[in-house]
Amino acid sequence: MSDHDENPTTGYSPEAGEVIGVRRGMFGAAGSPDTSGYGGLVREIAFPGRSQRPYGGYFDAVVDSLTEALQREDIHVDDAVENVVVHHDELTLYIMRDRLPTVARLLRDDPDLRFELSLGVSGVHYPEDTGRELHAVYPLRSITHNRRIRLEVAAPDADPHIPSLFSIYPTTDWHERETYDFFGIVFDGHPALTRIAMPDDWHGHPQRKDYPLGGIPVEYKGATIPPPDERRAYT
């Protein structure tokens, strides 16, 4: 087992995955006609564990080519790639945040990889994933080889910094701004990291799980929006 097989802060084991919490009364649970999210629905919040070889399809070739490219940079793959997961027929590489620019550059430039296109970045907030609460997810596409993969990077809420990929993938420009605005992830090195939807002086980040769903004053009218379970039903 390498030093990266377990996160000492969270006990997260890439090999086995982890159940980080239980979600109650929220959207996404199956087996009930209730779509309000407040019908007592319960489901686990779980991460898939590390996948075993063969991954299938072109996934093995991608991982092998990235490993060789990292070695040419004198970087061991375990010092850059935290986990390799194949889930729902998609390959996700969990990257250590300090190595993200290097990995992204190699994925773009190496002839055997050539992931020329980044489709942006999305934020995810897992309040229960202690020490790894904020995740950034990058879908990449190789036009040359007709392949798709995802990169995922985690950062603690107490230090929400992830290197910007703007200099490698300029298409991430506005996506990084949006993720900063809605999740509070700070993309170090972005040329103009500003809020994209909320006012500059807005407090909080609206797509985080700890952000209230209602009851926020509407400043220009002084009105409030009640929480979803207290709103009037028109039935």
- Tell me the Rg in angstroms: 20 Å
Q: Roughly what percent helix?
A: 10-25%
Overall strand count: 12
CATH architecture of the domain at 40-188: 2-Layer Sandwich
N- to C-terminal distance: 58 Å
Largest sheet: 6 strands, mixed
Summarize the structure.
This protein is an alpha+beta fold. The protein is 15% helix and 26% strand.
What structural keywords apply?
6-stranded mixed sheet; 26% strand; single chain; Beta Polymerase, domain 2; 15% helix; alpha+beta; 235 residues; disordered N terminus; two-stranded antiparallel sheet
Please give a structural write-up.
The protein has helices at 59-72, 100-109, 173-183; strands spanning 18-24, 42-47, 81-87, 90-95, 117-118, 122-125, 134-142, 147-155, 161-163, 186-188, 217-218, 223-224. The protein starts with 17 loop residues before the first strand and ends in an 11-residue tail after the last strand. 15% of the residues lie in helices and 26% in strands. Strands 3, 4, 5, 6, 7 and 8 form a 6-stranded mixed β-sheet that branches. Strands 1-2 form a two-stranded antiparallel ribbon. Strands 9-10 form a two-stranded parallel ribbon. Strand 6 (122-125) and strand 7 (134-142) form a beta hairpin. It has a domain at 40-188: NADH:ubiquinone oxidoreductase Nqo5 subunit (Beta Polymerase, domain 2, 2-Layer Sandwich). By secondary structure, it is an alpha+beta fold. It is globular and about 60 Å long. This is NADH-quinone oxidoreductase subunit C. Pfam families: Complex1_30kDa (PF00329). GO terms for molecular function: NADH dehydrogenase (quinone) (non-electrogenic) activity; NADH dehydrogenase (ubiquinone) activity; quinone binding.
